[in-house]
Amino acid sequence: IRDVWIAIGVLCGLGIILALIQTCIWHSRAGKQIIDLGTIGKFLLYIIHIVGTIFFIVMVGVSLWWLIFFKRPGSAFLVIPTSIQQTSFTVLVVVTFILKSLDILHIIIRQSNIDIFFMDWEKPKSNDITDVSVWRTYFVANEYSELQTFRRVNSTFHIIAVLFFLKVINLENVATAQPGTNLFPSSSNYNADYNGILRVGIAFSMWLATALVQYLVYVIFYQRFVEDRIINFIDLCSVSNISVFILMDNQ
């Protein structure tokens, strides 16, 4: 686990440099002349975003590495994590959750402050400017509002699929603190307790697998043969002669 913290330290150092670059870009776009409290706050928020992502990647990598090599059949490559290692991993999970929660809050606040303009380029057929209907702009704005909640991965199906694999097929038994895998152990056999690190590994594996399958099915089949909502929205704007301007910064 010491090597893990060393890797986190190195990656966080690189992350701070990346956060500094992103802050400089934001400072230039915001039209600021001096470094004020807003710039410092933005720098801290970028650090929270990058460090939280680093912690998440390391957490997932450690859990998958332990899951693969501890459960590898044939020979024991790793022993079960000690209580100190388990405590360190728990701290990593808690810190990652806090950082990513703050990052999501920052994303919500940032998106709520974005300025969106719908420009209607349709010219009136006569000198009366009221000849151009505003309902086309309302319709495009409504379609854009619906598009904001569009996801290529269905969240409800995603959760149900993960629970199906973990609870129905009993893949959660892969996370028991014993070598080998027995998905349907009998009551007469010894059943070890679940290990937190292994549970994170198997849960993330199922989460990633179901999300990847949904994404590929949508991109390869649904998007090609049924509809592509993003392309449809672009076509709607083109036919309606309406442009959408999204301004994320002051300048």
Describe this structure in words.
The protein has 251 residues and is mainly α. It has two domains: 1-113, no CATH class; 114-251, no CATH class. It is built from seven helices and two strands. The chain has helices at residues 2-29, 37-70, 83-112, 135-147, 155-168, 196-225, 229-240, and strands at residues 115-120, 242-247. The protein has a two-stranded antiparallel sheet with strand order 1-2. Helix 2 packs across helix 6, helix 4 runs antiparallel to helix 7 (229-240) and helix 5 (155-168) packs across helix 6.
Morphology: flat
| Overall pLDDT metric | 84
The Cα radius of gyration reads 25 Å
Class by alpha and beta content: mainly alpha
The strand order across the widest sheet is: 1-2
Low-confidence stretches: none
Question: How much beta, percentage-wise?
Answer: under 5%
Number of strands: 2
> Count of DSSP helices?
7
* Helix content percent band: 55-70%
Distance between the termini: 46 Å
The description of the largest β-sheet is: 2 strands, antiparallel
Order of helices and strands: HHHEHHHHE
Total individual domains: 2
